[in-house]
Amino acid sequence: MSPSALVRPDLRYMASFVEALREGYQRDSLRPETPEAIAAIAAEPEAFVRQQLNPPTTIVLPDGSLGERVPETHLWRVEGDAFLGSVGVRHRLNAVLEAWGGHIGYAVRPSAQGRGLATGMLAEALGWCRANLPLDRVMLTVNTKNIASTRVIEKNGGVLLDTIPHPWIEGDFGRRYWIDL
Ligand SMILES: CC(C)(COP(=O)(O)OP(=O)(O)OC[C@H]1O[C@@H](n2cnc3c(N)ncnc32)[C@H](O)[C@@H]1OP(=O)(O)O)[C@@H](O)C(=O)NCCC(=O)NCCS
Questions:
Q1: Ligand 1 centre and the CA of 141: distance in Å?
Q2: Is residue 155 over pLDDT 90?
Q3: Which of 25-29, 79-83, 102-106 has the lowest mean pLDDT?
Q4: Which CATH number does the domain 6-180 belong to among 3.40.50.300, 3.60.10.10, 3.90.1640.10, 3.40.630.30?
Q5: Cα-to-centroid distance, 23 and ligand 1 (Å)
Q6: Sign of dihedral through CA atoms 14, 150, 133, 90?
Q7: Considering the chain, what percentage of its residues have pLDDT values greater than 90?
Q8: How far is 176 from 104, CA to CA, in rounded Å?
Q9: pLDDT in tens, 9-43
Q10: If you measure from the C-alpha of residue 66 to the centroid of ligand 1, how many angstroms do you get, rounded to a whole number?
Q11: Best residue among 4, 83, 108, 124 to mutate for probing ligand 1, ranked by most atoms within 8 Å of CB
């Protein structure tokens, strides 16, 4: 494995990114990828990269309503031209993200899971926040059923704030953590 490095999304990784989607990599754990969405990305990879680099200012929330999308930086973990995983850093919280979502989200493609990548990606993303954002601490949220992500957060210094009913999944619970920068 080459030394860990997060990079900005780029066309050179898009063939592998689409492969990852077909393999089961999900950009959003609350919303499964559809074959139509994957086909649209595969058909216009340049447009997808442009959108990753300049995210829109609105977002369709899990309940279907339209919300404010705060400024966000997408960073990818790659190896050669292979896409392995992604981290999204929200530059600030709003009321929706404070209730659920937090500053940082990440995902690793299924074939690359279990190698410590997410732990390293979050550590690097925290470094990116220190260098680029005027924040003292960042919030992360995780479903209590997601043992792997809970470990990733705790290994990176996460301090539990509280456990709350999951705002988007009835019957589930979530944990909110702070990590000091
Ligand atoms: C959560 C996720 C990012 C973890 O990625 P990963 O690269 O496999 O994580 P790591 O290899 O860094 O492992 C982190 C820890 O989780 C543990 N772990 C990994 N997979 C696990 C599993 N299926 N069950 C229990 N523990 C698991 C590892 O053993 C490790 O803990 P350890 O150091 O105590 O041994 C990945 O499973 C994923 O992309 N899931 C879907 C998206 C998601 O849930 N994102 C987070 C939303 S909060």
A1: 14
A2: yes
A3: 25-29
A4: 3.40.630.30
A5: 17
A6: positive
A7: 90
A8: 12
A9: 999 999 999 999 999 999 988 888 999 999 999 99
A10: 30
A11: 108
End-to-end CA gap in the chain: 27
Q: Which pair of tokens denotes residue 140?
A: 């992360």
| Nearest C-alpha neighbor of 75 from the set 3, 150, 129, 19 | 129
Tokens of 60: 């369709």
pLDDT reading at 171 higher than 70: yes
Structure tokens at 144: 């209590």
Percent of the chain with pLDDT over 70: 98
- Rounded CA gap, 140 and 98, in Å? 9
Q: What is the mean pLDDT of residues 58-64?
A: 88
What does the block give as tokens for 89?
Answer: 């850093």
Query: Tokens at residue 103, please?
Result: 């500053």
Domain boundaries, the chain: 6-180
